[in-house]
Structure formats: structure tokens, C-alpha cells
Amino acid sequence: MIRLTRRGFLAASAAMSASQLLPARARAAADTLSLAAGTRTIEVKGRAATVFGLRNGSGGQGLVLDPGQRFRVELANTLDTETIIHWHGQIPPNAQDGAPNTNPMLRPGDRRGYDFAPRPGTFWMHSHIPQQEIAMLAAPLIVRSAADAAADRQEVTMFLHDFSFLAPEEVLAEVSGGGQHGENAPAAGTMQHQMPGMAMAPAMPQTGAMPGMDGMAMDLNDFDFDAYLANDRTLDDPDVVAVERGGRVRLRIVNASSMTSYWIDTGSLAGRLVAVDGDPVLPLGGSRFPVAPAQRLEVDLDLPADGAARPVLALREGARERTGIVLAPPGSTVPRLSSLAEGTAPPVAGDMRMEAALRAAAPLVPGAPEQRRVVTLGGTMDPYVWTIDGEVWDGHVPVGVTHGARVEMEFRNMSMMAHPMHLHGHAFQVAAIGGKALAGAMRDTVLVPAMGSVTVAFDAGEAARWMLHCHQMGHLASGMMTELEVRALA
Ligand SMILES: [Cu+2]
């Protein structure tokens, strides 16, 4: 072995990074992150529960990447069943997207390498099989930026999930059986709310109007879960995060729930929303922020100097259930918190006030749309079938666009439920809500209100077939998926 003086070592380092000193095989191993899809045991309401997870090389869940670090990952399937893991919101080559339409499944024991430049921000990863996603085969994917590393603030991840002691197949059977609409569903039957042939009626709420109370009842919450988890825990035994008295916190909130929307409630702390779905927005102040399935929020909080513990809650829409974490400075007393709020949280579905107020900090380059597409969302609770352009997945007709074209895609929701619509391989900008144009947030998942419409704009990316679907797992499982087919220029 060659011994180097410190000076000699620094000189050598200037020419070669430390990793280049390693033989090629060792180098590949050294900077490749490992990730294993497997089972794990968590405790929910005093009961042990076996759930899925995505374990990193340190034994934790998910991944945190440093500024500039590549997403260079070897994924192992340690389950006894096939899986496929999607890097939600990232824009990898299509062959690494982790969606079953274009990527082969990982069989039990399979390993597969991924290597791409990740987008900075708050992302997540999850199985693209709805039963597995319901059973928590999902984890955070945090990609830190240089600005994050330079900032004097603590980063806290809040990962939300809806949990059932039932097997996911039973959850889906109950949902699609129509037998359980939950205590929060409108008392009136669903069918009478179907309005076949009704002309498109955008349901953009008026400022101050209570959505869903203008005579048009909505269906919320297909299923009553047994628990709502934040960082795998319920509010009776929450994740208590040690913070500095008077410190600054960036909350990275991921709604990994399979079917549940929430209001994030920062309580007495004034929040500043600075990013959605990993993309920065012009800061928006507030203490309540809606988050639909698959969406993410980054909220900055300035902790007061009083040293008191502060909960950050997630309130299930149209219900009393809540979950959350506690930010606890040294010496603070952690308050006892009930998993049930005194009152019912209002609907997230249909309340587009925040979406309408958001402005991208790094919007699309202005340009007229070259291709316009309308994607019609339909379906009913009974029978429990959800469609895109009138078709379930087996009959789907891909939405065709041309590589490089500026596309405006209007989601027209002709159903009585809101749908969090997710497009793979692209970040889009919210360009209109209810037909009213705006230069809204960049996102990868947008909530389209019941009987409402949302238009998004994007530049069509890699020529490939990209999944386009509702992220409510009951809806997805019943067919609410199609593809964006990006075609190369002829
Ligand atoms: Cu849906």
C-alpha cells in the first residue's frame, strides 16, 4: 500500500476523487445505495402489524440523497411475490420509471440497478401495485439541494399513511363492494348524484363558500381505515421530533395514503408553504394546507422561543380522525393528543382555494399550447368502477402527444368524487381551474374536484408510454388508469 503524506493525499485527491482510487467493482458498490422491498412489523394501537417497507442500507425507510448525488440504487425484492417500485415525481428514463406498463416486474429475489440524475425536493417511492401500496410498500425519497445544505434549518419528514388491519385485498373488496361508504359519506344514496348527460359544470368554489355545501353533495372517503399514521405512528403515541428552541424547521410532508386526503394543521405556528410536489412555489402563508394522496408539501416553520412542544397535525377530510407528529424542544412536555378531533374537518375535495393561489417559483417557459387534449374522468360508487375517457385500463386508449410539444391537458371530472391525477415522467404546471386561467404550481399530482375541471400544461418528454392515473388506490385498482403516449417527431 502506498502511504501518502496529508499534503500528498490532498494533491492526489485534487486529481482523483477518493472513489476513483478504488477498483472499478468496489467503486460501483461504494456509491450505489441499497434498497430492499420487504416486510416489517410496526405497532398500531397496541397491536403488532406486518406491513411492507423499503429498507435502506442503514436499516431505515426510504432514501435521503445529498446535493448533486445521483440516484444510483440497487433495489432487491425480498418479498415472496412480484413487485415494481415507482420513484414518484422523479423523471428517470422510462426504462427506470418503475411502472408495470413498460418495466418488467421484479420477481422474488430479483435485483435491479437504477442510475439517473434526481430532481431535488420532497418525493417518495412506492409499489405500483395497489394492494402493495395500501399495505405500505412506500417510503420517503428526499433529494436535498445545495440550498438545503446551506440553510440554517432542520428538515423534518412527515410521512402519512392510512392503515387497515385487513389484508389489502379485503380493503379493496370492501371498497368496491359498495357496502362501506363510511360515516362521512352523504346520507343520500350515491346514484341520485350521478348526472348523466349533464353539461360540464366547473365547481370552482367561490371565496368563502363552503365547498360541498352549495347543494352539490360530494362523496368523500371510500373507506374507514383503522388508523391514520404519521411516520408509522398514531397520535396517541406520536413521533416526537427533537427540535431547537427558536429553531427553524422545514417540514417535508408526504401524503402516502392510499385513499385519504388531509388538512395539514400547524396550529399556533404560522406556516410558509414553499414547495408542492418537490417544486418551489412563491411562499404562501397559513396554518392549514390541503394535501391529497401522493401530493407533497414543504412548509417552513419558525419555532417560538418559549420552548413549548408543538404538534403538527393531519386532519382527515370530512371526518374527525387525525394524526401527526410533535416538535419538541429540549425540556418540553409532550402534550397528550387524541386521535379524534372535537369537530369534523371540512372537505379537501372541491376546495381549490389553495391551488388557485399557488404560483410556481420556476414556471414553464411561457408558450402557446401546440397540442390540446381532454381527459374525461368518470365512474360511480355503485357499481364501484372508475374510468378515464369511459374506459377501464383493459380498454384504455393512450393519450397521444408529440415529443417536445407544449401540451395543455384538461381533466374533466364527470364524477362525484375528486381524483388526484398523477402523470409519470413529467412535471406539469396547473394552467386553469374550472376554465379560469392561471400560472399555478408545478406539480406531478393534481386534485381534480368532483364535477370540476383542471387544466395542466407540460412539455412532452421522452418518447415512451407514461402512466397517467388516479392515485386513489381503490379507483386505480378498479381501472382509472391510462397512458400518455409520447411519440417521436416523425
Ligand atoms: Cu380517483
Key phrases:
single chain; 490 residues; mainly beta; Immunoglobulin-like; 7-stranded mixed β-sheet; 6-stranded mixed β-sheet; 7 helices; 31 strands; 10% helix; globular; disordered N terminus; binds copper (II) ion
Structural commentary:
It is globular and about 65 Å long. The relative contact order is 0.13. The protein starts with 5 loop residues before the first helix and ends with a strand. The chain is built from seven helices and 31 strands. The strands form six sheets. Strands 20, 21, 23, 25, 26, 27 and 29 form a seven-stranded mixed sheet that branches. With 490 residues, it is mostly beta strands. Among the domains are: 17-144, Immunoglobulin-like (Sandwich); 371-487, Cupredoxins -  blue copper proteins (Immunoglobulin-like). It binds copper (II) ion (CU). Copper (II) ion (CU) binds at residues 386, 419, 470, 472, 475, 480.
